[in-house]
Amino acid sequence: MQNRSMKMLGASAALVLGLTACSGGGAGSDEGDGGGDAAPEDMTVGVAMPTQTYERWLNDGASVEEGLEELGYTADLQFADDDIPTQQQQIDQMITQEYDALIIASIDGSALTSQLDAAAAADIPVISYDRLLTNSENVDFYVTFDNFAVGQEQARALLYGLGVLDENFEEAEDAPEETLNVELFAGSLDDNNARFFWDGAMDVLEPYIEDGTLAVPSGQTTIEQAATQRWEQETAQERMENLITSDYRGSDAELDGVLSPADPLSRGIINALRSAGMGDDIESGLPIVTGQDAEIASVSLIAEGVQHSTIFKDTRNLADEAVNAADAFLNGEEPEANDTESYDNGSAVIPSYLLPVEMILEENYEEILVESDFYTEEQVESGQQ
Fold first, then answer.
1. Which of 64, 176, 265, 369 lies at a 20 to 30 A Cα distance from 215?
2. Domain extent at residue 239
3. How confident is the model at residue 250 (pLDDT cuts 50, 70, 90)?
4. pLDDT band at residue 5, thresholds of 50, 70 and 90?
């Protein structure tokens, strides 16, 4: 590892500027007289979130609920604890109770077709939240982050940590000459976003694998081989333990880095690496590990020099855009999309609003996360909110 001072995250900054330039005023920012007759206090919006065991979904649900209530709407926030039948039942009840709009972050984007059909029959607009609802034309709008860019940024973070790229994300003049060994992890295949993350990461990494800069000793280079069902930390830890046993223990191969698509997976991977004696932190030889979602436990590890990076998706802004979209529909308007081409759910191309992402490193977590009041320094130090 090199001692580096962070000048600017060039790729992240360009992404922020690019999306800002094309975003207009955000979802629901169109001017108009509005077509809704009922007052907000007479309307209820159902908010279906997948689980309470993943820190970000608790934050997302609370932010959406707060935003809706600030506009005067009643919000019914429900978590399904990663159980598909529970989420189906929750949404069925929202439709039966004639809610005025639905905001859905699915467990499995393909498992809610009958609920989407029922919502359409009842003229209830459906906003897909971060995870795309698939195989149905009855999805009215999608709010998410630029998920392909998330994968690209994770790959760039990995290459930066390995010394292949410099602090400007250009080819490093003093890049290692030897081939570097990495292993690849992907998300849950029932989450459409997992494929965007993977495709974005491989878009960056494949040229380095092909030219011999990187090698994957396990040979597991497809998303099916790398997938982690339900994004579970324990599953990722077990797979990393198996990879260490089969490809590194008793061999001359040294593991230099791991592409991890999400922070819970990252922490499981780090547990496995530490248990195998591969170092306690990066300075002592721990392989470079990426992440996503800037969970407080992982940000704390980044501050301590243990986890190398994560991708920050400001869910406060995502919640705002979901609320804006719901408010637009409930006022007889169309939410404003900044992408009408990328998200084909298998039955229709869904108009979408994409938000930018930022790479978090030890060098910049304070500026991006603490100074924006997303976390306090005390929370970072304790690893708890």
1. 265
2. 147-312+377-382
3. confident
4. very low
The answer on pLDDT for 23 being more than 70 is: no
Long-range contacts of 162-169 (CB under 8 A, 24+ apart): 162/256, 162/257, 162/288, 163/1, 163/2, 164/208, 164/213, 164/214, 166/4, 167/4, 167/5, 167/6, 167/7, 167/8, 168/7, 168/8, 168/10, 169/9, 169/10, 169/11
The Cβ-side half-sphere exposure at 173, using a 13 Å CA radius, reads: 0
Give the CA-trace dihedral at 146, 346, 88, 313, to 10 degrees: 0
- pTM, two decimals, is 0.85
Same domain for 106 and 167?
no
Q: Are residues 246 and 111 in the same domain?
A: no
SS3 (DSSP) at 165:
strand
pLDDT band at 37 (very low <50, low <70, confident <90, very high): low
The pLDDT of residue 21 is 36
How distant, in Å, are the alpha carbons of 5, 206, 320 from that of 219?
Answer: 34, 13, 42
Residue 82 has what pLDDT?
Answer: 94
Question: Kind and range of the H or E element at 79?
Answer: strand 74-79
pLDDT digits (tens, 9 = 90+) for 325-358: 999 999 999 999 999 999 999 999 999 999 999 9
Q: Are residues 277 and 340 in the same domain?
A: no
Residues facing residue 352 across a β-bridge = 142, 339
What band does 15 get if pLDDT is binned at 50, 70 and 90?
very low
What mean pLDDT is reported for the chain? 92
Helix (H, G, I), strand (E, B) or coil at 276: coil
Q: Are strands 141-145 and 126-129 parallel, antiparallel or unpaired?
A: parallel
Give start and end residues of each alpha helix (H) in the chain.
10-22, 55-70, 84-96, 113-121, 147-161, 192-210, 223-226, 233-247, 263-275, 296-303, 315-330, 365, 377-382
Looking at residue 112, its amino acid is L
Total domains, the chain: 2
Q: Kindly write down the DSSP assignment for every residue of 91-153, as one continuous string.
A: HHHHHHTT-SEEEE--SSTTS-HHHHHHHHHTT--EEEESSPP-S-S---EEEEE-HHHHHHH
Indicate if 53 and 90 belong to the same structural domain: yes
Same domain, 307 and 319: no
